[in-house]
Amino acid sequence: MGFVFSIPFFWLLTSALKPDPQLFKMPPVWIPHPFVWENFPRALTYIPYLQYLRNTAYICIFNVVATLISCSFIAYGFSRIQWPAREPLFMILIATMILPYPVTMIPQFLIFKWLGWVNTFAPLTWPAFTGSAFFIFLLRQFYMGIPMELSDAARIDGCSEFGIYGRIILPLARPALATVGLFSFLGNWNDFLGPLIYLNDQRKYTIALGLYGFLSSTRSSEWALLMAASTVTMLPVIVLFFFTQRTFIQGIALTGIKG
After folding, report:
1. Which of these, 189, 61, 194, lies nearest to 118 by C-alpha position?
2. What's the mean pLDDT when you consider all of the chain?
3. Quick one: which of 174, 172, 136 has its CA closest to 154?
4. For a tag site, which of 69, 73, 110, 233 has the least CB within 10 Å?
């Protein structure tokens, strides 16, 4: 099964190294001859790739930090503090996950247009401070597995709720926080629709949107360069997953969402 799922990536990599006549040749050419290594430097200069990379990195890092701050704080309130209507409000929060994005897309656009945020990074970054229902649920499940006796002992010693949250809960929740951070990074790294809706200036494009520059209706599309740039774009995600897979799998398992 692993071999079967690796075939698309193998095809992507070999297509990035093919001469143009071999791209659509039938039967398919699995091993290019000769290897066109020049496709990679050409792909990175055909579009302002480094500029798109900086824009994407800014959006991803901002969203990871904002999501961890907001979701971890909200999840603490839903899991470790008793207050009236906590459970009904949490169910309402979870119910918002049912709404598909196209339902809220137009109202959100009108709000951000009224705020003057169109053609800026603001619609792609600042909403992360409002939290995400799925990430709040993920962290809440983890927090509920931490014994309440730890919080009670800290309260007896005079620790405030903010102190318990920052000194006890967050250090113990590192696997879950790493999972949320990785999900947030991947979601923003691969996001195409958001930048397509809100960004008009090509200097502000992200990588996912910038890759569309290889496809043109006025001249021949550069498929080999597109495959090369896509391969380079995938590398940070692959490296990140291999370095964090142990923490990622541990965070998923400890939150009760086992496959």
Report:
1. 194
2. 88
3. 172
4. 110
Cα 221 from Cα 143, distance rounded (Å): 50
Please give the Cα distance from 145 to 140 (Å, whole number): 9
Residue 58, H or E segment: helix 49-79
Q: Which two tokens stand for residue 259?
A: 């496959």
Query: At residue 65, what is the residue type?
Result: V
Structure tokens given for 70: 């907001």
In this predicted structure, the answer to whether residue 162 has a pLDDT above a threshold of 60 is yes
Go through the domains of the chain in sequence order and give each one's CATH number.
1-37 (no CATH), 46-254 (1.10.3720.10)
Alpha-carbon torsion, ordered 141, 144, 146, 148, to 10 deg: 170
- Which parts of 80-199 fold into alpha helices (H)? 86-95, 101-115, 122-125, 133-143, 148-156, 161-164, 170-172, 174-189, 193-198
Contact 83, 165 (CB under 8 A): no
Give the side-chain half-sphere CA count within 13 A for 183. 20
Residue pair 175/250 in contact (Cβ under 8 Å)? The answer is yes
CB-based contacts of 25, cutoff 8 Å, min separation 6: none
Residue 258, pLDDT score: 43
This prediction has a pTM of 0.86
CA angle 68-69-71, nearest 5°? 65
Q: What is the pLDDT of residues 194-224, one digit of tens each?
A: 999 999 998 999 999 988 878 764 556 788 8
Mean pLDDT for the stretch of residues 174-201: 91
